[in-house]
Amino acid sequence: MAPMLRALLIVVGFLSISSFAVPSPFLPTDVSAALTSQRSLQVEIGRSLSKQAALYFPGQPEFENLTTQWADNIDPTFFVTVEVGTEEDVATTVKFARKYNIDFLAVSRGHGLTKSLSTLKNGIQINLRQLQEITVAPNGKTATLGGGVYTESLLNALHAKGKSSGTFDGIALRVLN
């Protein structure tokens, strides 16, 4: 994985976990009504996102699809889902959330099993599903992945380059020769 992408994923992962896992007396627990209105969000953050990005709000079918968790006992709540289209959209959304002290969570499929995810209430979901890029380095020793890459896509891309990997994807252990 490229150092820049690795650093971005580590930072996004750290910020998403740290922003809601440890309560702070300096952060508000509720987002102001002004920020949670669809119009203000579309103006405030929507104009800064790429054309590939989208905002989804409660009541919209896509919002419900993107915020449904795999495990019933994991129940974070969101007032908006930002489906990012570029790495820059991730950075823009994180900056927005930090500016207003809003908790956020970057997700790909919604398979998180950590019960502390349920402590996130009224936050921003950063959906990474469009970030599907897979680049295998010319020497074949590393691969750079977008945050929304699924295991099957990665294994297929590696196999197409004559590379292999072992993984447990919840269904079976697969090793490509």
Protein architecture, described:
By secondary structure, the chain is of the alpha/beta class. Helices cover 34% and strands 17% of the residues. The protein is built from 6 helices and 8 strands; from the N terminus they run H-H-H-E-H-E-H-E-E-E-E-H-E-E. The chain has a 4-stranded mixed β-sheet, sandwiched between helices. Strand 7 and strand 8 (173-175) form a beta hairpin. The relative contact order is 0.15. Residues 1-30 and 170-177 have low confidence and may be disordered.
Care to give the gist of this entry?
Helices cover 34% and strands 17% of the residues. With 177 residues, it is an alpha/beta fold.
What proportion strand? Answer: 15-25%
- Please identify the structural class as seen in this structure: alpha/beta
The H/E string reads HHHEHEHEEEEHEE
How do the strands line up in the largest sheet? 1-2-4-3
What's the oligomerization state? single chain
Query: Helix fraction?
Result: 25-40%
Radius of gyration: 17 Å
| Overall strand count | 8
Distance between the termini: 21 Å
- pLDDT under 50 segments (min length 5)? 1-30, 170-177
- What is the approximate shape? globular
How many helices? The count is 6
- Largest sheet features: 4 strands, mixed
The averaged pLDDT comes out at 74
Keywords for this structure?
177 residues; two-stranded antiparallel sheet; 4-stranded mixed beta sheet; disordered C terminus; alpha/beta
Helix and strand layout, with pairings?
Elements: H1 3-21, H2 33-36, H3 38-44, E1 54-56, H4 61-67, E2 78-83, H5 87-99, E3 104-107, E4 123-127, E5 134-136, E6 143-145, H6 151-160, E7 166-168, E8 173-175
Parallel strand pairs: 2-4, 3-4
Antiparallel strand pairs: 1-2, 5-6, 7-8
